[in-house]
Q: What sequence folds into this?
């Protein structure tokens, strides 16, 4: 992000007050020096300076005095500012882009779990409809918090893959009601973890957060590749039609981003999705059968399944919620880094975790799985730099609308996986690069390098070899066997706690010289 962009954030966001403090202090000194000759100039200088302070409410006279000096922010500047002034309708295409990037991934966990639970088609459709509603509500909550619950960051929430393995095991043995009970109780646990994050966050230093972000990016690479080939389990996976669709969508995104100018180029992902969808229609890859016999409006069902509270299921999900809380630490760090060019504040981090916990409990009441911030959308922010909360809010409202209008949901759901893969695979790579950048910012000391190298190699390497955890308990396998994020995090935390300080990794030149003399 350029210096001008960073400056824009400093003027509009309270969290960046410290970064601009030195500049303001220098300006105060200059104004004080000039006041010796002309006292009136001091008042003008101080007035001009304080009118930009985030905590000072501007009066009508301030606005009049500075109106001619401060040009109206452009649309591009507004899009790159959390609270930039932009028309709600003008922001809808950018919000729609966020929805299309996560739509299928938001529904995929529901498909897997409802299939394992052997629910009827009507029951599955009801859960999918409810999943859209809670994803939209969660996005709105993260953007515009309730009390301390919510991050106030441009987060988009969706049904998390982290819980799929444990959820399928629970519904197969204890039934769907036990899953609902575990989701509700676990969400309350994550809510508490978020509100108390200031007490345990110190055990997750920058190098650990950087490792979590990096592992999140690596964990999504297989998802992007699977989508590019047509989707996991597709009968024509890897066919030339799917690969061609993925390639056309990817090229369309790149071409649009390179050829267009100004704000419009930030819609490159949406352009690629539209181009890919149109080509897919000519390829016969779009299934329109789902549009038949659709109701015009359908209200989501509250409490479609009665919850039962199984202790084993609750413990299993509680552990996963702890892991998810750490993932949110990485998500907020990555999002703030790629979108705002800074680290998240303590309030933003704790609010993000608490928001995920509260909306996950609500999700359980609607019979759905837990939610979390979507890494796909963090990748989209990395590409477009669009962080305006009002713009992302339009995406959340679209998700809510889709939950009431089955035709809207079906339109998004008919998007071929290959098209989605072609448009998102580059976004996942950007998350990895963001993680590398965070590791560099933490510092390439011998200690940090050791932690990063071991954590990533064990986390990513071990989870690619399915049988390596075969001798561990089933509960352990459900949490770690396929989750490189959880393994990388645990290894990083252990290493950070047990490894000695940096001095022990450095060569003691004085003792070496003494030994040489002896």
A:
């Amino acid at each position: 992000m350029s210096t001008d962009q960073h400056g824009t954030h400093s003027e509009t966001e309270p969290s960046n007050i410290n970064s601009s403090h030195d500049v303001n202090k220098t300006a105060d000194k200059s104004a004080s020096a000039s006041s010796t000759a002309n006292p009136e100039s001091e008042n003008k200088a101080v007035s001009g300076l304080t009118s930009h302070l985030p905590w000072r409410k501007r009066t009508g006279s301030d606005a009049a005095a500075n109106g001619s000096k401060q040009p109206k922010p452009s649309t591009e500047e507004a899009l790159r500012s959390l609270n930039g002034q932009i028309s709600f309708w003008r922001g809808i295409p950018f919000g729609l882009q966020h929805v299309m990037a996560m739509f299928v991934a938001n529904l995929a966990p529901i498909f897997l779990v409802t299939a394992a639970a052997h629910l009827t088609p009507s029951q599955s459709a009801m859960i999918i409809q409810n999943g859209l509603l809670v994803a939209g509500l969660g996005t709105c909550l993260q953007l515009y918090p309730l009390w301390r619950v919510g991050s106030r960051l441009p987060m988009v929430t969706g049904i998390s893959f982290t819980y799929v393995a444990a959820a399928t095991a629970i519904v197969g043995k204890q039934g769907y009601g036990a899953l609902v009970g575990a989701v509700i109780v676990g969400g309350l646990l994550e809510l508490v973890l978020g509100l108390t994050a200031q007490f345990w966050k110190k055990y997750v230093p920058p190098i650990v957060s950087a490792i979590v972000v990096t592992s999140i990016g690596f964990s999504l690479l297989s998802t992007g590749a699977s989508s590019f080939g047509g989707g996991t389990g597709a009968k024509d996976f890897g066919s030339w039609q799917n690969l061609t669709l993925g390639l056309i969508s990817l090229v369309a995104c790149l071409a649009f981003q390179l050829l267009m100018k100004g704000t419009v180029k930030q819609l490159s992902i949406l352009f690629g999705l539209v181009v890919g969808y149109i080509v897919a229609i000519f390829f016969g890859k779009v299934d329109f059968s789902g549009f038949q016999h659709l109701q015009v409006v359908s209200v989501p069902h509250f409490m479609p399944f009665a919850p039962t509270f199984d202790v084993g299921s609750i413990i299993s999900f509680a552990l996963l919620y702890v892991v998810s809380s750490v993932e949110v630490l990485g998500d907020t760090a990555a999002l703030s880094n790629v979108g705002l060019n800074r680290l998240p504040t303590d309030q933003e981090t704790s609010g993000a975790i608490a928001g995920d916990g509260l909306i996950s409990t609500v999700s359980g009441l609607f019979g759905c799985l837990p939610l979390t911030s979507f890494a796909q959308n963090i990748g989209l922010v990395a590409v477009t730099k669009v962080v305006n909360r009002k713009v992302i809010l339009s995406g959340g409202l679209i998700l809510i609308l889709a939950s009431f209008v089955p035709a809207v949901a079906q339109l998004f759901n008919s998007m071929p996986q290959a098209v989605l893969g072609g448009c998102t695979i580059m976004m996942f790579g950007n998350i990895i690069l963001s993680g590398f950048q965070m590791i560099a910012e933490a510092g390439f000391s011998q200690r940090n390098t050791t932690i990063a190298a071991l954590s990533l190699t064990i986390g990513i390497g071990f989870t690619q070899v399915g049988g390596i955890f075969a001798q561990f308990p089933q509960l352990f396998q459900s949490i770690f066997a396929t989750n490189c994020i959880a393994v990388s995090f645990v290894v990083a935390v252990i290493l950070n706690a047990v490894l000695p300080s940096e001095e022990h990794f450095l060569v003691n030149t004085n003792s070496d010289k003494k030994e040489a003399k002896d």
